[in-house]
Design a protein that fits this description.
This protein is about 60% helix and about 10% strand. By secondary structure, it is of the alpha/beta class. Helix 3 (about 40-50) packs parallel to helix 5. The termini are far apart. This is Response regulatory domain-containing protein.
Length: about 210
C-alpha cells in the first residue's frame, strides 16, 4: 500500500450529491489517482485534521488525527453549493491554514456565475470546473499537483541547508584570526629590526674606544 500512495497522487473530493461524488471518483480513478470522497466541507476539514472529533455531534466523522497526519492530500476538488459549509468557505479555511494552504483547491459548480468564479479564483482556487466534470477537466489537475509538490521540496531544502550559515560564520572567524596574526607579524618584525638597529649603535662606541686604546 505504501508503494501505491508514493506513486499515486491523492485527491480529496467533496460533494453533497452522491451521483456527482461517484462520477468524480470514477474519473479520478480512471486517471490513476488515489481518491477519498466526503459529502461535506466539515468532513473534509475533519479528514484534513483541522477539526477534532466531537462525540456530542453524531454528524461529525470519527477520523483519528493520527491517521490524518499520515495521509497526504495532493489536491482538493469541491462542489461550490453545499448545505452548511460551501465550497468557497472550505477554500477559505484551507488557504487560512498554514499547514494546508499549499494544497491546490479546485471548485466545481453546475451554475456558470462569473462573479462566483472570479471570487473563488481570487481566493486562491486553481480551477473552476462546470458540471458535469469531464475527463478533459480531470487531466488539467496534474500540473497543479506537480507544482505544489515542487514547492514543498523547495521548502524542505532550506531546512537541510540550515547548517551552512554556521559553517560560513566559523570560516569568517578563522579568516579574521589569520588576518590578525598576519598583522601582528609585521609589527613584531619591526620591533626586532628596531632593536637590532639600536644595539649596534650602542655597542659601537665601546668597540671604537677599545681600538683607540
Amino acid at each position: 500500500m505504501g508503494m501505491a500512495t508514493e506513486s499515486q497522487f491523492h485527491v480529496l473530493a467533496v460533494d453533497d450529491s452522491l451521483i456527482d461524488r461517484k462520477l468524480i471518483e470514477r474519473l479520478l480513478k480512471t486517471s490513476s489517482y488515489q481518491v477519498t470522497t466526503v459529502d461535506s466541507g466539515s468532513k473534509a476539514l475533519e479528514f484534513l485534521g483541522l477539526q477534532e472529533y466531537d462525540p456530542s455531534n453524531p454528524n461529525t466523522p470519527s477520523v483519528s488525527p493520527n491517521i490524518n497526519q499520515e495521509v497526504e492530500v495532493n489536491l482538493i476538488i469541491t462542489d461550490y453549493c453545499m448545505p452548511g459549509m460551501t465550497g468557497y468557505d472550505l477554500l477559505k479555511k484551507i488557504k487560512e491554514s498554514s499547514s494546508l494552504r499549499n494544497i491546490p483547491v479546485v471548485i466545481m459548480s453546475s451554475e456558470n456565475v462569473p462573479s462566483r468564479i472570479s471570487r473563488c479564483l481570487e481566493e486562491g482556487a486553481e480551477e473552476f470546473f462546470l458540471k458535469p466534470v469531464r475527463l478533459s477537466d480531470v487531466n488539467r489537475l496534474k500540473p497543479h499537483m506537480m507544482k505544489a509538490k515542487c514547492k514543498d521540496q523547495k521548502q524542505e531544502k532550506p531546512e537541510e541547508d540550515s547548517e551552512k550559515p554556521d559553517q560560513l560564520l566559523s570560516q569568517q572567524q578563522e579568516e579574521e584570526q589569520q588576518q590578525q596574526q598576519q598583522q601582528q607579524q609585521p609589527n613584531n618584525n619591526k620591533r626586532k629590526s628596531m632593536e637590532e638597529g639600536l644595539s649596534p649603535d650602542r655597542t659601537r662606541p665601546r668597540y671604537s674606544g677599545l681600538t683607540v686604546v
